[in-house]
Amino acid sequence: MKLDFFVYFPHLCKYQIYLKVGIDNSDFYILFCNRIRTMNNVLNMYRTRIYKPTDKMSDLICENYALLQVLSRFGISLGFGDKSVREVCELNNVDCNTFLTVVNFLIEDSNRMEEHLEGISVSSLMNYLREAHSYFLDFQLPTIRKKLIEAIGDSEEKDVTFLILRFFDAYVDEVKKHMEHENENVFTYVEQLLRGEHPQGYNISVFASHHEHIDTKLTELKNIIIKYFPAGGNNRLLNATLFDIFSCEEDLASHNRVEDFLFVPAIKKLEKEAK
Ligand SMILES: [Fe+2]
Ligand SMILES: [Fe+2]
Fold first, then answer.
1. 211 C-alpha vs ligand 2 centroid, how far in Å?
2. Considering 110, 133, 154, which residue would you say is the last residue of a domain?
3. Residue 50 within a domain
4. Is residue 93 domain-shared with residue 142, that is, in the same domain?
5. What is the per-residue pLDDT across 116-143, written as a single tens digit (0 to 9) for each?
6. I want to staple 89 with a disulfide (CB 3.0 to 4.6 A). Which of 94, 180, 212, 244 is the partner?
7. How far, in Å, is the centroid of ligand 2 from the Cα of 30?
């Protein structure tokens, strides 16, 4: 049997790549899938580049769709047509340098930060982190809870369901405590520094030495569901919820990276300048 079809590479929307493929048997299909995977890996390698103010905002998002979260946390709405990063930032009153610093830091694999700190706006970075906290606490985690209840609520394994929800709620409490501490204590301290005040008895190294990685417990929850939740429930919804948990875990890990390797060094620099 010979079958022709078109394949579209959605994450490469900049280039609108479609391939017409002829398949004679399933072996060819497997070969084709493997070749796509290899090709994507190679293209991913080239995708990691440093974005500049003159680049199109739409290219930046199409090439790295995870950056949609960064856009919304900086308060930038979609619908920017072919405008450049600088133009979109100006229209939304966003500090372009800080926006690009976060973008370029997140898409690179290493945690090098020296070259990222130049010209960063601490208040803009802090607003970005605050928005991220609100996103996790007011939207992402409640949405996952709702989906979890829908996916496992009807299961006959009431004990496992109860334990999963209890574990999840305890986790959310921890995240809440962690983020409220940052909002109320750490950011207040930084605001004082920005006003030219020199608060005594506290510095950002105190925060940095106690800064925990809150994504790890989500890894445990994910493992409990994958390994121990009995079959028979709403598998589609449970898988979709797991997908959300995976993406939330990655998002929280990126958030931690920004705090550890951009925010803390930027505040250390500010403390030095304030002396
Ligand atoms: Fe945070
Ligand atoms: Fe944190």
1. 6
2. 110
3. no
4. no
5. 777 899 999 999 999 999 999 999 999 9
6. 94
7. 43
Q: Are residues 123 and 24 part of one domain?
A: no
Residue 61 lies in a domain: yes
Asked if residue 126 and residue 36 are part of one domain, the reply reads no
Give the environment of ion ligand 2: residues with CB less than 5 A: 259
Helices assigned H by DSSP within 48-157 = 57-63, 68-73, 85-91, 96-107, 114-117, 122-134, 141-152
Of 214 and 14, the structure prediction assigns the larger pLDDT to: 214
The residues facing 7 across adjacent strands are: 19
In a domain, residue 35? The reply is yes
Number of domains comprising the chain: 3
Does any domain span residue 51? no
**How remote is the CA of residue 115 from the centroid of ligand 1, in Å?**
22
What confidence category does residue 115 fall into, taking pLDDT thresholds of 50, 70 and 90?
low
Tell me if 148 sits within 8 A of 168, measured CB to CB.
Answer: yes
Closest CA to 210 of 172, 165, 260, 257: 260
Radius of gyration of the chain (CA): 22
Distance 110 CA to ligand 2 centre (A): 19
d(CA 133, CA 130): 5
Domain that holds residue 75: 57-110
pTM of the model: 0.79
Query: Is residue 165 within 8 Å of 148, Cβ to Cβ?
Result: yes
Enter the tokens of residue 116.
């990222």
As given in the structure block, the two tokens for residue 134 are 């609100």
Q: Which residues contact 168 (CB under 8 A, 6 or more apart)?
A: 144, 145, 148, 221
Question: Both tokens of residue 90?
Answer: 């100006």
